[in-house]
């Protein structure tokens, strides 16, 4: 097959799926715009702020994408392009899209609280604590790993550092134009895009050259501020404008595919086992996370996205549509490297990494478009800038989500107000953020965070399995057919528990007892929560508190 055939087929399948399977999900949850969303009923100007669908799609897409749909498919391409392509297509349509859309709807109907709150409602406080502890620990790993990745990028490519800093200022200006000056979104967007171009231009002229260690300190300070700042100031406008960078790379790359008509030079299937990756099952389904399904998406959907959903029907384009767009980006990443000869691909992957392989492949596609006149070097630089921008987006989004997890963990265990009528410090967003960032900083400066990456990959997918578990119990309560969430849940549990089992053994025999212990702990937490849910599904649903307390919409 050629690159055009792979890309064209994926576009057709995703459009059909959005039209028909997306509507099927809408009917399953009885989506109704007459149900007023918490962004209006709980509006606070900080976290609960309604956003227009294009703005929210930009935030959601920018937050869930990151470097995941680029790095994962490229690493897994060592198995051959066919199993990776098949997993991206089927995973995004029937598992990832269901996971993302359902997480948003379930959250919106529970005060836009996290999936942990949904677990508490239907499984109990013990289940919630298990999930929130699991999720918070995973997000701390995200903070540490992405801090190192972004710091490395800024230190090695100073132009990206300057452009990113200027871009933050541009985003604040855009937010003020939309939310304070009340300019029309189209006009403000044009100004915002012009500011992005200027940020890239001045970044090239005036690169900021600092060492990696100093950048790590700066980034940790930045994510603290970003986590406590009202979403309309930075999060919403930054992610909305950020999405245009990714749209440009995605759109330009796809158009370039049709001009280049690249042949697929990697084998359709090459091996059942990759060194440092593992066996095809379960390694493929853990390595290719974003682009097919990712537990991080449920945290974003039920963490920040649900708090900004203007109306219920927006969940289809934001949740299900956002997942399909990410799947398309994963397909582009796969085609970008599959068009290389096998020796070239292996050499670039080992010497420069997955992001470089993606940037080189997309640069060739952009260079083939005659009316753009983009050189290979310029295309590679622009692609790398876009990936770095989204890695930074994932970093501060993860920090805000971890703050939510921390606050919710203590919500039911202590009284919200003391005798003086003051909220507990454990619910204070500054304190909870400080604890979270401190934990991430400890891992960042320990020198061991990158060695935990394989465990993090499994933990991320296990988050998806746990979210699908919560959604299965919720859908069961709604008294509708639950197979559309239960089958993906069972599959993801089989994948992640198998992967963790292998990690427990491999780390133990290599005397890496810390990683073996962490893997064992994650395995036990997942099994405990699964058993709690299984008892409810078999023996009947738990007696819920009053509907008025949870403000649920059936």
Report on the architecture of this protein:
The protein has a two-stranded antiparallel ribbon with strand order 1-2. The protein has helices at residues 3-28, 38-41, 53-65, 68-76, 81-108, 115-122, 125-156, 158-179, 185-205, 212-228, 235-260, 280-287, 295-305, 314-338, 342-351, 354-367, 376-409, 429-444, 453-477, 483-509, 513-539, 547-550, and strands at residues 273-274, 278-279. The chain has 22 helices and two strands.
List the helices and strands and how they pair.
Layout: H1 3-28, H2 38-41, H3 53-65, H4 68-76, H5 81-108, H6 115-122, H7 125-156, H8 158-179, H9 185-205, H10 212-228, H11 235-260, E1 273-274, E2 278-279, H12 280-287, H13 295-305, H14 314-338, H15 342-351, H16 354-367, H17 376-409, H18 429-444, H19 453-477, H20 483-509, H21 513-539, H22 547-550
Helix pairs in contact: 1-5, 1-14, 3-11, 3-13, 3-14, 3-17, 4-14, 4-16, 5-13, 5-14, 5-19, 5-20, 6-7, 6-19, 7-8, 7-10, 7-17, 7-18, 7-19, 7-21, 8-9, 8-11, 10-17, 10-18, 11-16, 11-17, 12-20, 13-17, 13-19, 14-16, 16-17, 17-18, 19-20, 19-21, 20-21
Summarize the structure.
With 554 residues, the protein is mainly α. It has helices at residues 3-28, 38-41, 53-65, 68-76, 81-108, 115-122, 125-156, 158-179, 185-205, 212-228, 235-260, 280-287, 295-305, 314-338, 342-351, 354-367, 376-409, 429-444, 453-477, 483-509, 513-539, 547-550; strands spanning 273-274, 278-279. Helix 8 (158-179) crosses helix 11 and helix 19 (453-477) runs antiparallel to helix 20.
């Amino acid at each position: 097959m050629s690159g055009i055939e792979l890309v064209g087929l994926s576009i057709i399948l995703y459009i059909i799926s959005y039209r028909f399977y997306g509507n099927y999900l809408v009917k399953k949850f009885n989506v109704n715009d007459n149900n007023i969303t918490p962004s209006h009923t709980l509006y606070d100007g900080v976290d609960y702020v309604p956003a227009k669908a294009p703005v929210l799609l930009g935030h959601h897409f920018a937050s869930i994408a990151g470097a995941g749909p680029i790095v994962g498919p490229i690493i897994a391409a060592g198995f051959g392009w066919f199993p990776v392509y098949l997993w991206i297509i089927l995973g995004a349509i029937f598992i990832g899209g269901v996971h993302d859309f359902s997480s948003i709807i379930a959250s919106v109907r529970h005060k836009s609280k996290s999936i942990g709150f949904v677990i508490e409602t239907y499984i109990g406080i013990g289940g919630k604590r298990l999930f929130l502890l699991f999720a918070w620990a995973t997000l701390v790993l995200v903070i540490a790993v992405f801090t190192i990745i972004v710091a490395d990028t800024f230190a090695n490519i100073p132009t990206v550092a300057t452009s990113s800093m200027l871009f933050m200022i541009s985003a604040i200006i855009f937010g003020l134009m939309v939310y304070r000056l009340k300019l029309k979104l189209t006009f403000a967007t044009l100004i915002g895009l012009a500011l992005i171009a200027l940020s890239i231009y001045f970044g090239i002229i005036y690169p900021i050259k600092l060492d990696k260690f100093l950048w790590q300190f700066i980034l940790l300070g930045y994510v603290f501020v970003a986590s406590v700042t009202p979403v309309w100031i930075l999060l919403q406008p930054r992610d909305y404008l950020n999405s245009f960078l990714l749209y440009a790379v995605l759109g330009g790359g796809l158009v370039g595919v049709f001009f280049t008509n690249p042949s697929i030079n990697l084998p359709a299937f090459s091996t059942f086992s990759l060194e440092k990756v593992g066996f095809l099952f379960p390694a493929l389904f853990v390595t290719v996370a974003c682009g097919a399904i990712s537990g991080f998406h449920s945290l974003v959907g039920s963490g920040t996205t649900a708090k900004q959903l203007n109306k219920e029907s927006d969940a289809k384009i934001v949740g299900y549509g956002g997942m399909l767009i990410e799947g398309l980006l994963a397909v582009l990443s796969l085609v970008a490297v599959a068009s290389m000869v096998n020796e070239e691909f292996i050499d670039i992957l080992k010497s420069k990494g997955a992001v470089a392989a993606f940037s080189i492949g997309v640069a060739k596609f952009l260079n083939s478009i005659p009316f753009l006149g983009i050189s290979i070097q310029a295309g590679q630089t622009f692609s790398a800038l876009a990936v770095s921008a989204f890695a930074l987006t994932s970093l501060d989004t993860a920090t805000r989500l971890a703050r939510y997890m921390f606050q919710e963990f203590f919500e039911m265990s202590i009284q919200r107000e003391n005798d003086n009528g003051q909220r507990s410090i454990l619910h204070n967003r500054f304190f909870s953020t400080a604890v979270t960032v401190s934990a991430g900083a400890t891992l960042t400066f320990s020198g061991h965070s990158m060695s935990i990456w394989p465990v993090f990959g499994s933990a991320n997918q296990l988050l998806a399995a746990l979210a699908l578990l919560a959604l299965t119990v919720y859908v069961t309560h709604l008294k509708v057919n639950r197979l559309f969430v239960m089958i993906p849940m069972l599959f993801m549990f089989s994948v992640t528990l198998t992967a963790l089992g292998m990690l427990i053994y491999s780390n133990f025999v290599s005397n890496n007892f810390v990683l073996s212990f962490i893997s064992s702990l994650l395995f036990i937490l997942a099994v405990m929560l699964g058993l709690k849910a299984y008892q409810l599904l078999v023996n009947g649903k738990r007696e819920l508190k009053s509907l008025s307390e949870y403000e649920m919409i059936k």
